[in-house]
Specification:
single chain; alpha/beta; Rossmann fold; 22% strand
Length: 276
């Protein structure tokens, strides 16, 4: 496991580094902590930040690096060239005005990252409950597997959530929704086959968890479940490259969650499993 951890000034970056440590507890993991400054004059301040990161990661195989330039481009350049398994980056709980208008560095980086990226928000928490979100199709199989492998490595409990876009009026109550999930799993639809494969992977990896079905706006329902279940991490796939027309019709789930979630979000590429 090789992690790229992008940091800013401490103490802002402390939760990011602390969360990264949970993902690399073993002796085989290696971490590069990257700080980007806008000018050479800021290198001394960068060294203070990197020294604090090394202290928090004491006992692990850690290297540090300062790059000069625009944060988004420099982080992406390192992520592309370094053969990393995962990028970890922090984000503010509340976006500034410029971030609302132009987009945060974290969102810009994640939207273009060639590897899975974890955006850390809020204070660091023990990784014990993970919410894995799926679109219910075969393309989501690798994302679910990546989330389950992380859960196994962390000893975390999992909820696999599938949100259907429309709510049938006959399934308005909780008991009816549970019945609907049972009925769905017995069909031969793409969604049912995907959820059965996910359940089989969960059993194979010996991860404790459950499957839930919700109906309604996807981002709203994911955030509702995330709040009710008090999860420590939300996992979903990268869905940025769908095109402007489809985004206008369906909305960008990944981008919406990055903007609105109050917990860390792992945007999984699902291209490399077995690394945890």
């Amino acid at each position: 496991m090789k992690l790229l951890v992008a940091v800013g000034g401490f103490p802002h970056s402390s939760p990011t580094v602390a969360f990264a440590r949970q993902l690399a507890p073993g002796s085989t993991a290696s971490i590069l902590v990257l700080n980007v400054v806008e000018s050479e004059e800021l290198r001394d301040r960068s060294e203070e930040t990197l020294a604090a990161a090394r202290k928090e990661l004491d006992g692990l195989a850690v290297e540090t690096l300062t790059r000069v330039g625009a944060p988004t481009e420099q982080i992406l350049s390192e992520a592309t060239s370094g053969n990393y398994d995962l990028l970890v980056i922090g984000a503010r709980q509340k976006a500034s005005l410029s971030e609302v208008l132009l987009g945060s560095v974290a969102r810009k980086v994640v939207s273009r990252a060639p590897i899975s990226a974890l955006v850390v928000k809020g204070a660091s928490r023990q990784l014990s409950r993970i919410l894995i979100c799926t679109g219910g199709k075969r393309y989501a199989d690798p994302t679910v597997t990546e989330g389950l492998e992380l859960a196994k490595a962390a000893g975390a409990e999992v909820t696999l959530l599938y949100v259907a876009m429309q709510t049938p009026t006959m399934y308005a109550g909780l008991r009816e929704v549970e019945q609907r999930l049972t009925e769905l799993l017995q069909t031969d639809t793409d969604e049912a086959r995907h959820l059965r494969r996910a359940a089989a992977t969960m059993k194979e990896l010996q991860v404790e968890g459950s499957i839930q079905l919700r109906h309604g706006p996807v981002v709203d329902e994911i955030l509702r479940e995330a709040a009710l279940g008090d999860y420590d991490l939300i996992v979903l796939g990268a869905r940025f490259k769908r095109g402007p027309i489809r985004d206008l019709l369906w909305g960008n789930v990944t981008g919406g969650l990055l903007d609105r979630a109050k917990r860390p979000v792992l945007v999984a590429m699902g291209s490399s499993t077995g690394r945890w």
